[in-house]
Inverse folding.
């Protein structure tokens, strides 16, 4: 890996980690369902969906993918926090909330990624 690649990856990762920290620093709950991780996962998936289309449409260099897809989106979204929150819900025998938590994080993240791709393709006339 070249130094410029590493620098772009670090720049994206730093920005993503900072954004995740700011979004998750104040816990948000909706009917007992943790919302912060859901928000970062859905927003990150949407950004990734937009980026994938722009990456191909504009024939971007792979260094851009390192910065945005791997660095920013990788640091913004968080599987480990999803796992921790899910384990806490199971430990506290909140099985319905646990199921909703898993389904909304995975389902809405996939929907956001597809929505980002579809919206960007429509805006580009593809």
């Amino acid at each position: 890996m070249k130094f410029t690649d590493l620098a772009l990856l670090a720049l994206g990762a730093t920005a993503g980690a900072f954004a995740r920290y700011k979004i998750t620093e104040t816990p948000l709950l909706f009917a007992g369902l943790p919302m912060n991780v859901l928000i970062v996962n859905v927003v990150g998936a949407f950004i990734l969906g937009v980026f994938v289309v722009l990456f191909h449409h504009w024939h971007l260099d792979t260094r851009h993918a390192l910065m945005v897809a791997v660095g920013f989106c990788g640091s913004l979204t968080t599987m480990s926090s999803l796992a921790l929150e899910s384990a806490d819900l199971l430990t506290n025998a909140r099985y319905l909330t646990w199921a909703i938590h898993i389904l909304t994080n995975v389902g809405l993240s996939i929907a956001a990624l597809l929505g980002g791709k579809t919206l960007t393709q429509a805006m580009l006339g593809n």
User: Anything to note?
Assistant: The chain has a mean pLDDT of 95. The chain has one domain: 3-124. Residues 52 and 58 are 10 Å apart (CA to CA).
